[in-house]
Structure formats: C-alpha cells, structure tokens
Amino acid sequence: MIAHTLGEIAREIGASLEGLAERAVRGMAPLDTAGPGELCYAESPELVDKVRGTSAAGVIVGEDFPAIADCNLLRVKNPKVGFVRAMELFRVEERFSGVHVSAMVADDVQVADEAGVGPLAVLESGVCVGPRSQIRAGAFVGRGVKIGADCDIGPNVVLLDGTIVGDRCILHPGVVLGSDGYGFHWMGDHHHKIPQLGIVVIEDDVEIGANTCIDRATLGETRIGRGSKFDNLVHIAHNNQIGQHVLLTGQVGVAGSSRLGNGVVAGGQAGIADHVEIGDGVQIGAQSGVIGDLAAGEKVWGTPARPMGRVMREKVALGKVPDLLKAFRRQEKELQALRDRIASLEGGQPE
Amino acid sequence: MIAHTLGEIAREIGASLEGLAERAVRGMAPLDTAGPGELCYAESPELVDKVRGTSAAGVIVGEDFPAIADCNLLRVKNPKVGFVRAMELFRVEERFSGVHVSAMVADDVQVADEAGVGPLAVLESGVCVGPRSQIRAGAFVGRGVKIGADCDIGPNVVLLDGTIVGDRCILHPGVVLGSDGYGFHWMGDHHHKIPQLGIVVIEDDVEIGANTCIDRATLGETRIGRGSKFDNLVHIAHNNQIGQHVLLTGQVGVAGSSRLGNGVVAGGQAGIADHVEIGDGVQIGAQSGVIGDLAAGEKVWGTPARPMGRVMREKVALGKVPDLLKAFRRQEKELQALRDRIASLEGGQPE
Amino acid sequence: MIAHTLGEIAREIGASLEGLAERAVRGMAPLDTAGPGELCYAESPELVDKVRGTSAAGVIVGEDFPAIADCNLLRVKNPKVGFVRAMELFRVEERFSGVHVSAMVADDVQVADEAGVGPLAVLESGVCVGPRSQIRAGAFVGRGVKIGADCDIGPNVVLLDGTIVGDRCILHPGVVLGSDGYGFHWMGDHHHKIPQLGIVVIEDDVEIGANTCIDRATLGETRIGRGSKFDNLVHIAHNNQIGQHVLLTGQVGVAGSSRLGNGVVAGGQAGIADHVEIGDGVQIGAQSGVIGDLAAGEKVWGTPARPMGRVMREKVALGKVPDLLKAFRRQEKELQALRDRIASLEGGQPE
C-alpha cells in the first residue's frame, strides 16, 4: 500500500491545489466509485455535479473547472494526463538486481548494472542484457539475443536466437519472439520446410501483449518500429516491417512480408494479408480483412476492407434488400397489369 | 489403466443394472466404436439396433429404453449425465502434496494442507494456496496472489501480482492472468503508457483454456463470474465484468470495460467491442462482431452483430442480388417499351 | 557465421557453376538487397536485368536463364528449390545430447541416444524421447508422453499426459498439446465438466507454430495427420481428425469433432465449426467461417463459407445495391407516371 498526501501529489504532477495539502490518498479510482481515501479526475466542467457529490479525497480537474467549497481540487492543464501522472505515483514496480541463483546463465552472458535475471530464467551464450532491464522468472533468452536498457521481459517469455530488443521495451508473459516463419515449398508429396535464417528486431519503447508471437524473417529482419504497442495474442508473421507508433489490438494477425507505415491502427481481430503495403496513419476497423495496399490516411472496414463510409452505406443498403425484393416482385406484377391495359387500349388482347 | 466392473459402475452412477455385475470395464467409448472392454451410452430408444449390435461391455440407457437379451444395460434417468458420471470414474488425476524441492517459494508463502507445488514453479512473496490446490510445474505465481481450494493451475501458467482465484478453478497451461491492460494516451509524439493498477479476480468454479489471457484492470478489478468457462486463446481486456456461467469458446475476444451478463454464450472467434453492455443469456454467433449494447436474451450474428433472423434473411437476400440486378435492367428496358407504346397511343412520338 | 564457397554450394545443391568456385558466401539474401558476400536467386529469365545489376556473390538460376559475363551463376532445374537447399547449408542448429543437470526427469524416463533434454525441462514418469530429439529449456512433458525421433520441442512447450508425437515434428515455443477439451453439460444451475479422457496424437513431420493449442479428445484421439503444418496461435478443439499435409495458417480455429481431409488449406483467422466434414484439397479463404460439410476440392470464402466465385459475385453485387435502391425509387415514380397516362388514355382520372 502506497500513501501520498494531496500536497505531494499536486507537487509531483504540477497541479495547483485548492484544498487540504495534508489529506492522505491511498489509491486511485474512477469518479463514479471513488471512496474517501481515493483520488479521481473529472475530464470536463460538465461533471461539476458529480464532483460535488463525490466522497473522494481529491479530484484532478482542468483550468476551466469551477471552484467547489469543501472539495479538494488539483488543477492542471489536461486532467486526463494529470490523472495518468498521479497513477504513476501509485505504481509498484518489483525490480531486482543481479542474477538469481537458480537462473541458468551461460558463462559469456553480459548482464549490465542494476539489471536483474529472475529465478529459473535461462540465458544462453552471447546474450547481453542492458542496464536496469528485468528478465523475469522462467523466461528463455536464446543465443546471441541483445536486450537494451530498462526493458521488462515478463515471466515465461521466449526470445529465440538472435532476437534484438531495444530500450524501454515491455514484453508481457508468454510472448514468443523469433519462432520460425511459416514457410514451406510443396515438393509433390510433402511440404518442404524453408529455413528461416533471419531475426526479429524490436525497436525502442515497444510494448507487446501476453502470448503474442512474432516470427523471425526468412532472410533479414522482421522489424517492429519504435513506440509500437501490440495487445495480447497478436500474430506477426515473418518478414513484416511494422512502422513506428503502430497500435495492433487484441488478436490482430499480420501475414508475411507486409509493410505497415507509421501510426497505423488496427482494431481487434483484424487481419492483414501478406505482401501488402499499408500507408501511414491508416485506420483498420475491428475484424477487417485487408487484402490489398492502402494509401496513407485511409480508414477501412470489412472483409475485404474498403473505405469505412462505403462499407457503412453497403451495410445499410443490404438491410433494405429483403424489402426491395418484395417491392420488385410487386412491381413486376404491376408492370404486367400496365402492359395488359396498354394492349387493351391498342385494341389487342392482353398479353 | 483403471478397471471397474459393471456392478461397481452401476452403484457409483446410481444405475439399475440389467446384466453381468462382474463384467470388467477398462474404459469408455462412443457407441459406434466401443469394443468388448468398453462402456458406452445410448441417448434415445431409437438407437436400439445399434445397441443390439455393439460388442461393448455395457451400455448406459434411459428408463424408456427397451430391454435387450444378452446385453448389459445400466439404466438411469439421463443417459448422458450417467455417462459423464461414469467417465469421472475413469479420470486419472495426478495430484501431489507439498512443495517440490526445485520450486522457488518465498518464505512467507502459505501452502495449505494437501496442496501441491510442482517442480520449478515460482511463488513470490505473500502468495496463498488453498487446500488441495495444485500448482503445476513451471507456473509463475506473483506477489500477493491468492488461490482458493481445489484449484488446478496448469504447467507454465502465469498469475501476476495481486490476482485472486476462487475455489475449484481450472487454469490450463499457458494461461496469463493479470498482464497489463492495453492503455495508452497519445502525447503528440508517442503513446504514453497508462499505469494499470487494478487486478484480476476469478470467482469460483471457473475454467480457463490454454494460452488464454486476461488483463488486470486499470483501476479496480477485471472480474470473471462464478462458473464461467473460457476456451483456448481467448482474450479478455482490462476492466471487463464477466457474469456467471458465461461460455466463451475458442479465440473469442472481449475489448475493455464491457459487461457481460449471466449465461452469455459466444461462438468461436466472436469479438465484443469495448464499453458495451451485454444482457443475461445473450447468444452471440461465431465470428460475430458485437459493437453495441444487447438486451437480455438476444441472439445475434454477423459484423456488426444483429438479430440472428434478420442476418439470415439478409444473407439469403444478398444471394438474390445478382439476379435482381439483371432483372432490374430487363425491367428498365420493358418500362421504356411501355413508355413508347403509351406515347404512340397518345398520338405523340416514342420518347 | 558460416562461410561457404560458391563451389561448395554448387556441389551441395547439385548446380552447375558458371563463375568463380572460390568466391566466398557469408549468407543468403533476396535478389533486391543481396550484397557482395551474399547468394540470391532469380526465379525466371525475366529478371536478367536485375541479375546483371546485382552485387551478389552469386545467383541461383534455372536452366533457361541466359549466361551473363562477370556474374557467378549456379544453374539448377528449379531455382527456388535450389535456393531453399542452399539456405539449409546456412542454418545453424543448436543441438545438444544428454540431460541437462537442471532438468527434472523422472526415474523411468527413456531418453534415446543423442537426444537432448534442456535446462529446467520437466519430464514426468513414463516419458520416452526418441533418438536425436531435442526437448528445449522449460518444456513440460507429462506422464507417459511418447516423442519420436528427430523432433524439436521448443522452449516452454507443454505436452500433457499421454500425448504421442511422431518423428521429425517441430513444436515451436509455447505450444500446448493435450489440454482438456471444452466440454460441459448444463445441470440446471451450472455447467458440469465432462471429463476429457482421450489423448492427442501428432503424426510424423508435423510442424506446429508458437502458442498453438490442441486439445485432447473426450474419448479416443484428437489426431493431426502426417506432414501437416500449423502456424502460430491456432486452436484445435477436441476430437478433431486432421488429415495429412493440411495447412492451417495463423489464428485458424477448428471447433470439435470435425474431420479435415488431406491437403486442406485454410487462410488466416478462418474458423471451422464443430462436427463438419471437409473433403480432401478444400481451400478455405482467410477469415472464412465454415459451418457445414464441404466436398473435396471446393474453394470457399466468407461467413458462412460458400464457393469463392459466388461470394465474389455477391460482394460485387452488394456494392451496386445503394445505386439500385435509388434507381428503384426513381422507377417507381415513373411507373406511377405511366399509370396516370394510361388512366388518362382510358378516359378515367389519374389514380
């Protein structure tokens, strides 16, 4: 349990405090549920009534928020950012230094100052671990893997031979980097394995969710750009080149040899085909199936993925098709009736 | 190999036996493939000919099943339930007590009576393991994790700090509970990580499939209700509140901060968006994409998920659109012909 | 770093060399990026200009490729196969023999000659490991598991009790074989677990991607046929019978008790329902949802999956529906106009 006072928190997050500096805060909570020992935030002045009714120890608010008597306000420029900064004060990070006696570490492994290798981790020959990085329990780090500074490699993560991880990367439990790409050549009676000789490179500030898998390249590198964030159970096939600050949410899959530009965002369970080129800033809706190139800035949805507006129009239109079919059959009958009436006017017999 | 006699099995499952009590049974099999040492079941009297032809040691049948000469019948109220009960007699559960010498267990860990901690498991400070629970080989149990009674925590499972697991829970290999939720705030030039300070709570009688991941809440709890069963490779994002007896089948994904009522069922690869409310008993078809709230009892399919009947009608209607397009073009020509005939009747020229 | 000469490589892959036999090769690269120490290949004579411009040490080409002065060509029947063969010369396989001192191996485990058991692996009672097979670090091998010859069982793989793995199988990190199938029987107030008494059988030459899960059968076997290749994060439920040489790409899911014939191919994120029968050679498009039987040789796409051509026609037709709806409304107005004109000709009043 961490306790701070409102005064300390205000100082740490750069807020001006209106209220009791000595008031103790035990934790953080959403505005709706915050109790007497908790700190919350109000995104806009519209929440003034909720703030008045809260029993929270304090509320982080923006500069345009009204003052409230008997309510401790921490005033900042951006309340959400202020709240995130305050949360950081309550984060407990378990860090350790040195190599646990039960870890299996090859003789030539280099573990930098203040880095830690947890119990039952395995570090094979040639591994380098940067300053302050944490290799958690049960992780496997294969031959020649390089891990930068300030990384957090979770329990039971597997980094296979030659993988390179930048600085400040977070790999959640069960992540696998560097498994063989899925490459086979049909030889008439069997699928012959194509050796996968490349590696995986993770640039700085990348976070990768639990049980996500990234395959090594056939030749060269599968590369994940700086600042990209992947959610759980994501699949990145071999040879992909993923740009910077890319967001791939839960269960997204990217088939091989594709290129994603900077700032691409893909919703949950979206799939991207192999050998496609996705421009900067493309937004891909959840469950979409991207099967071709996309220009920078496009927003797509559906399988195959096409411009969001067009897909919406088609989905609306599809909902009208059952009625359209009925109306069309009715119209055909009416047409026949008109034909008969015309024929009769023409002096002939109904058709 | 476990062997029972028909008499023993009948007694254990509460069946009345018509046949040889001493007949030995080595195992269980489906009716179609059961051999002389095996026990099977027939769900309805319509299977009487198959039962007559079987070489099985015995057949579990219902009360309305006809008697058959020379065939050992175990008569129960519900044959399927009787079969499941009999299967339980043949289940071999490997259980152990105490802490394996190779496990890494912090000094203050509490392991209850008859609980077992397998080889190379890691239990950090403050962990409690309830009576008879099994922590299998290579599992990682982080600081302050509480595990109830009679749980089975599979090999290489990862339970991160603060996770709470109820009684009689089964976590299959590779499950990850308590990894950080996927939360970032764009700061103009990078995605800033939002600390994830909450925990995961698993209520009693929950079963979670292999390599499934459940993220900790940003604040408060990600909670899985009593009796829920998740299949393999399911993704549960942060802050979700999952009700009781919920069934999520293989590869289902639930984005953050959603609420699923009791008895919700989702077919394989379905996805549920963030911040939605799913009522009790909702049924979600396989591969659906739920993007909004659903009232109790709804049955939906498709992306976006809508009422099953409507989606079916639309899918049928879509199949008729290619023909409709042709018919419509034909009709336009006919309309033109009628227009011409009318113009001619009116004494004018064809348009 | 492995170095070969062009002469050695030509001899190993059965190529006729036109050029410098002594030229050293340090590695392999695609034609576009190959540098002076690298070997590449050109699939067809159309690439002659690229080959002329390359600085690669040598190029593997077909028999119909033109000779090029000052360019080292290795001529083979099939350049792609030649390239794969050459890649095999550059693959470094880390192999070890014997049981690592930190592995936990039951007394009755049989480890064949030249087989290796890595650090912190766990092999329970009754396990057999075939000749030259490698059990990597942190793998868990449950009671009675049989592993054939020349297998590679990756780090942190989990093989649960009774699993059978054939010869020359490759299991990538985090694979789980033999977890309980997802089987429950609703008892009025809870889902009662149906014991899963069967096993998983993996035939020879199967490769399984990282974090893929295959469940044991309820009774009998879940079976994966010889030569099949699964990608990462694939889900195979209980009782499935998968044929030979089946390709399941990333994140495919197969629900229970289905049968896939030989040579079936499924694109990424495709799902196959339970209790369906898929004929030999069926091709299933990415993200498809197969909900019924498919005859041999069918090519399907979509959810529900139907013949590829029909789905394409429907998708094209759907794109025309918004315009069709507009045209239909226009036509209805015109029909009304015609009706009025006819009524007027008939001497009556407009309707």
Helices and strands in order:
3 copies of one chain form a homotrimer.
Chain A: E1 4-5, H1 6-13, E2 16-18, E3 24-25, E4 27-28, E5 38-41, H2 48-53, E6 58-61, E7 73-75, H3 79-90, E8 98-99, E9 104-105, E10 110-111, E11 116-117, E12 122-123, E13 128-129, E14 134-135, E15 140-141, E16 146-147, E17 152-153, E18 158-159, E19 164-165, E20 170-171, E21 176-179, E22 184-186, E23 191-193, E24 199-202, E25 207-208, E26 213-215, E27 221-224, E28 229-230, E29 235-236, E30 241-242, E31 247-248, E32 253-254, E33 259-260, E34 265-266, E35 271-272, E36 277-278, E37 283-284, E38 289-290, E39 299-301, E40 306-307, H4 308-345
CATH class category label of the largest domain in chain A: Mainly Beta
Pair with the most extensive interface? Answer: A-B, 65 and 64 residues
* CATH homologous superfamily title of the largest domain in chain A: Hexapeptide repeat proteins
State the major sheet of chain A.
12 strands, mixed
Cα Rg of chain A = 29 Å
- Examine the coordinates and then state which fold CATH places here, giving the name of the CATH topology of the largest domain in chain A: UDP N-Acetylglucosamine Acyltransferase, domain 1
CATH architecture designation of the largest domain in chain A:
3 Solenoid
The helix content of chain A, as a percent range, equals 10-25%
Strand content of chain A: 25-35%
- Which geometry of chain A do the CA atoms define? flat
Q: Quick check: average pLDDT of chain A?
A: 95
Number of domains of chain A: 3
Question: How does the helix and strand content of chain A classify structurally?
Answer: alpha/beta
